[in-house]
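User: What would this chain look like folded?
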Amino acid sequence: MPDKTWDVGVSAIVVRDERVLLVRYAYGSRKGMWTLPGGYANHDETLDQAALRELQEEAGLTGEPRGIVSVRTRTTDEGGAVFVGFRVRCDRANRSRIITRWTRRSFSTERNCSRSIR
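Assistant: Here's the prediction, encoded as structure tokens.
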């Protein structure tokens, strides 16, 4: 059996007034779709550091991780993936920027926050 490879991904889940902040894909086959800020973790960072890096890269925001909200896995014959969602609290200074810098879609935080929304 050949060695399987595993990818590790993260997302930053920022909730304000029961609304989850999403970013929009700007290119590729998912262009225009809404998603949580996130991506792959680098080998030289912890998972919470990766979530904060992705939040900074994709939304220009900084914050503090407050805990794990979700864990999702998948496997194929070639390998698998683990995706960890971190609840992140943004600084008050960032909160005013969120409204002008992020486009938001509202949905219940009890739903699966790791799915993309059109």
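Strands lie at 5-13, 15-16, 19-20, 23-24, 34-35, 38-40, 63-75, 79-90. If you want, I can go into more detail on any region.
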